């Protein structure tokens, strides 16, 4: 824990000014239509205003407005505006306007004021609390239902407890889908085909360890920079779920898609504890309920897009293959064993939970 605190203190010295510069650079022009939607809902008086002062919440995420998380966030903003009578306004900042995933997490941890709510992979928080990687261990879930049930389980809740002391409160769990590999070199039929592949990953220790175990060379990069990096051949490959690949046009700069499903990517809808405390009790209940409802909508969209968009990617010209996954799972077993001390009894709980399903 001392390591986590010292890292946070170090970032606080350098991060606040950087976060302020990031916000200034974004300005107000990039804000989505959610703010105006909120104002419209308020003016109609369609529902009684919740007690409490007027509050504006900035919600940031890294992907564009076609992504299921963006559509879920829009529903969240509209529901909050309606049910608070406009007393709580949610402004959406997609496409990394307030920073990449790591920047967004840092901004909340530093309480910089840059962002109030973020939607990002649960395991991206592992740089602050290593136990947050538990949901992203490779090849643990085969179906959406199993993955969603785990994200809503007491095991995941226990992993998230450590975030509260770092100004992060998880309200709901969105779905990013099962991660797959794309590249510009050739089809991935076995782990051997990944040897030496320079692959972009998020700044995520679990994903990086998984790619290393498969023989690739993972290098973190902000998602907002990914398309250009692939276009310029700075990277050979990247890994993301099917909806992210399609909705962000990565098929334009990657030729091969291999359905590896190596990691389930569950996301945490997270509000800064300082922002949460600005809400009245009534407003907190509305925000919490709206977050869970929007997560259900996001999950539905993600599963639908995952099922529908593989053929669409093929129509866009991608060469798609589905390798036998057992060799990939075997190659990544050491990601669990090498990090057993990190997760402690959570690994045993995960094993028991899976056996009971």
From TrEMBL:
Location(s) in or outside the cell: Cell envelope
SUPFAM superfamilies associated with the record: Periplasmic binding protein-like II
Main subcellular localisation: other
Keywords: Signal, Transport
GO cellular component: outer membrane-bounded periplasmic space
Origin superkingdom: Bacteria
Signal peptide per UniProt: 1-34
Any single biological process term in GO: transmembrane transport
Pfam families per record: DctP (PF03480), TAT_signal (PF10518)
InterPro entries registered for this protein in UniProt: DctP_fam, TAT_signal, TAT_signal_bac_arc, TRAP_DctP, TRAP_DctP_sf
Family: Belongs to the bacterial solute-binding protein 7 family.
Full protein name: C4-dicarboxylate ABC transporter substrate-binding protein
Species the sequence originates in: Faecalibacterium langellae
């Amino acid at each position: 824990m001392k390591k986590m605190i010292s890292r946070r203190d170090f970032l606080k010295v350098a991060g606040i000014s950087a976060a302020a510069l990031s916000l200034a650079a974004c300005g107000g022009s990039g804000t989505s239509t959610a703010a105006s939607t909120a104002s419209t809902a308020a003016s109609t008086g369609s529902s009684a205003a919740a007690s409490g002062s007027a509050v504006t919440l900035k919600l940031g995420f890294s992907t564009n407005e076609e992504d299921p998380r963006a559509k879920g966030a829009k529903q969240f903003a509209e529901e909050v505006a309606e049910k608070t009578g406009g007393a709580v306004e949610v402004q959406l900042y997609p496409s990394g306007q307030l920073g990449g995933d790591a920047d967004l997490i840092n901004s909340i941890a530093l309480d910089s004021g840059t962002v109030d709510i973020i939607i990002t992979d649960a395991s991206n928080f592992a740089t602050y609390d290593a136990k947050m990687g538990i949901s992203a261990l490779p090849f643990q879930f085969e179906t959406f239902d199993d993955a969603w049930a785990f994200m809503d389980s007491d095991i995941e809740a226990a992993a998230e407890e450590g975030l509260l002391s770092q100004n992060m409160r998880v309200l709901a769990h969105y779905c990013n889908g099962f991660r797959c590999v794309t590249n510009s070199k050739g089809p991935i039929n076995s782990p051997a085909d990944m040897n030496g592949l320079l692959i972009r990953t998020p700044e995520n220790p679990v994903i990086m360890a998984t790619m290393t175990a498969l023989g690739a060379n993972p290098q973190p990069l902000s998602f907002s920079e990914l398309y250009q990096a692939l276009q310029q051949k700075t990277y050979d490959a990247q890994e993301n779920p099917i909806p992210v690949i399609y909705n962000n046009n990565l098929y334009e700069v990657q030729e091969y898609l291999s359905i590896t499903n190596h990691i389930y990517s569950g996301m945490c809808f997270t509000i800064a504890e300082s922002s949460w405390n600005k809400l009245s009790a009534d407003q907190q209940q509305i925000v919490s309920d709206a977050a869970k409802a929007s997560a259900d909508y996001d999950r539905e969209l993600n599963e639908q897009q995952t099922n529908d968009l593989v053929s669409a990617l093929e129509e866009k010209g991608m060469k798609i293959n589905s390798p036998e996954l057992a060799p990939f799972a075997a190659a990544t077993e050491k990601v669990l064993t090498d990090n057993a001390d990190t997760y402690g009894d959570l690994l045993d709980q995960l094993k028991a939970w899976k056996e009971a399903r």
